[in-house]
Prior knowledge:
By secondary structure, the chain is an all-alpha fold. The protein contains 18 helices and no strands. The chain is 77% helix and 0% strand.
Amino acid sequence: xxxxxxxxxxxxxxxxxxxxxxxxxxxxxxxxxxxxxxxxxxxxxxxxxxxxxxxxxxxxxxxxxxxxxxxxxxxxxxxxxxxxxxxxxxxxxxxxxxxxxxxxxxxxxxxxxxxxxxxxxxxxxxxxxxxxxxxxxxxxxxxxxxxxxxxxxxxxxxxxxxxxxxxxxxxxxxxxxxxxxxxxxxxxxxxxxxxxxxxxxxxxxxxxxxxxxxxxxxxxxxxxxxxxxxxxxxxxxxxxxxxxxxxxxxxxxxxxxxxxxxxxxxxxxxxxxxxxxxxxxxxxxxxxxxxxxxxxxxxxxxxxxxxxxxxxxxxxxxxxxxxxxxxxxxxxxxxxxxxxxxxxxxxxxxxxxxxxxxxxxxxxxxxxxxxxxxxxxxxxxxxxxxxxxxxxxxxxxxxxxxxxxxxxxxxxxxxxxxxxxxxxxxxxxxxxxxxxxxxxxxxxxxxxxxxxxxxxxxxx
Length: 460
Ligand code: PHE
């Protein structure tokens, strides 16, 4: 298949002003709650160093090749994932069923958005909680009580969820160049500056050496099979793969920009932020008696506020920290809604504003299920899982790996190798061959393995 277009041709949505804006937008999508909230706590639960090493290997050998494939497919199709995949599948002459990749991705994006906005709301709440000074000198018990009073109050949760959703739609209504493009140009540099400031704070007030030892020293005894699986799954979530986000952003990528190098930059930045978030959090945890690195999901919402509340300058830096997380979550959520919005604009020929309202409202209503799963519906469970847990499992553990598997199989096996390699841009032939080999063999088998073992573990 040959590429036929000039720079701006072929997308009704617009094109990033430069390769760098694409890099910022994709990095904004990748860097999110996954890096700052999830990575530190799953690294903590899995004993640190060895887990981190496996995670890095997964990023390098599985996630990066798939990310390159997603950007490539998006740019070839130049439309929302649904229509882009339809176009590319048709041009390759492959069975039309492959087009379901686009549908599954868009659906996964909306499902994830529904609960991402709820957690994003918690983060907003903590900006205010920290900033107001209410937590000054708070004990672990006080912070835990404040956290559960938030979760038990549906009105409060809905308020923050709504605000987060409005922020998300506000940017996406602005469109690709003026909304998303401008937002990421402000947000991403700010995020890196804030993270740097927090790293310095952690180096001054935390136990830097203990933090580094925990994250980077390899102790094979702490590595378990489920830790390996978690690392692989997380490499997907953190790079926003398997849900159309990166494919949609790829559709707005300038023609001719080299995909390989671009993706390496994005994945490198994402990894850097995860490790930096770890090094901003763990030194502080280790310097605080009674705090454990393996606190789990509450590490960010309970452990950190206690520490900040009891440190010199802690309230200021704590507020800064939650502002940072807000920006990261926000620049991710805009990429969760964009694929569905683009699809609606293409099929219904509606305005961006209407498309955002329709998708946003849909995800918001669905999100109420997540809100209620922490209070009113706490006891309504499916096989012991709350609504939120079902959503999380259905997306993160099933849909994402499934779409990733389909993408690597499509590009690795259904497309002609020369076509796939040509669509990638001006990389050295040897690099292209390695990429294709990783995709066709390593990625497919690794993902098939997690899916099968993950499902087996869950249900048997
Ligand atoms: N990558 C984001 C994170 O790490 C999550 C995300 C998933 C964003 C899918 C967009 C699409 O938090």
